[in-house]
Amino acid sequence: MLRDKIILKLKERKEELCITYDAIAKRSNIGVATVKRVFKGDDVSIGKIEKIVYMLELDDDFKPKISASAMRQKEIEKKAHELISRIIHTSRLEAQTPSSKVQKMMLQETIKKLSTLPNNKVWQ
């Protein structure tokens, strides 16, 4: 009974976020097969379920800590920072580091472009 309620909340959040099993597995540091078993309701350790609950940003009552749109925006900003960091690192190696103003503009443009991705692509 409790397991069914937990699985239902996980499924609802997964759908709300438009996130794949692969993305959940990667971000939870759990195998894809195990993630699928969790969502199927198979017998898995509570630790695995907790990792997924934490990754999906659910609280102890399995309610979202933040909205799906806020979580999506957080992921977009994280990806943008990673991309710009790579560019800046490469620029430093070539002694062509952009100014902080240019870096900020690059980050804003990257966030803007990533924001146009379909929901399910944000998590890839």
Description of the structure:
This protein has 124 residues and is mainly alpha-helical. It folds into 2 domains: 2-55, 434 Repressor (Amino-terminal Domain); 68-122, no CATH class. 71% of the residues lie in helices and 0% in strands. It is built from 7 helices and no strands. It has helices at residues 2-17, 21-28, 32-40, 46-55, 68-93, 100-114, 119-122. The protein is elongated, with a radius of gyration of 18 Å. It starts with a helix and ends with a helix.
Features:
mainly alpha; single chain; 7 helices; 2 domains; 434 Repressor (Amino-terminal Domain); 124 residues
Largest sheet: none
Low-pLDDT residue intervals, each spanning 5 or more residues: none
From the spread of the alpha carbons, the general shape counts as: elongated
Q: What is the count of helical runs?
A: 7
Q: Which structural class fits the helix and strand makeup? A: mainly alpha
Query: Helical amount among residues, as a percent range?
Result: over 70%
Instruction: Give the overall pLDDT as a whole number.
Output: 90
Give the terminus-to-terminus CA distance. Answer: 33 Å
| Strand portion | under 5%
Count of discrete domains: 2
- C-alpha Rg, in Å? 18 Å
H/E element string?
Answer: HHHHHHH
DSSP summary, beta strand count: 0
